[in-house]
């Protein structure tokens, strides 16, 4: 969503606000848009040159499934009152990473890590995320993370997660949102 935030001294600035439903809560990331990254038109539409990754990989599932899921979420949010039973949220894990570390140390892990990875969230905090990623996926993951750290780009990638408590690797899809204080 593109919004204009009003500054303390009066003028407003354009920001890109990204929301993600992360199983049992909503994650929000706000990025200040530079006039060099975007063009705002009078009808509040925006052309973004720096908000999407050129390295974005494919979606999980078909486009038809993705659009059906999007329509279901839209219907739930359009209702006058929120009915959580209307949606069956996917199990999603939220990790907040220290963007100032090369190996992306986990600063916060949501409770869904227990359901998806069979790891207690407290046991993940302080551990580098990269030790959980399959070795042949690390280079592309680090490349995407570096892109998200250095620009207003939202990166999207697939990788295999290796849980120490499960035999099989878990196929994952991630959106990396870089902000001043974390990822």
From TrEMBL:
<dbReference type="InterPro" id="IPR035965">
    <property type="entry name" value="PAS-like_dom_sf"/>
</dbReference>
<protein>
    <recommendedName>
        <fullName>PAS domain-containing protein</fullName>
    </recommendedName>
</protein>
<dbReference type="InterPro" id="IPR000014">
    <property type="entry name" value="PAS"/>
</dbReference>
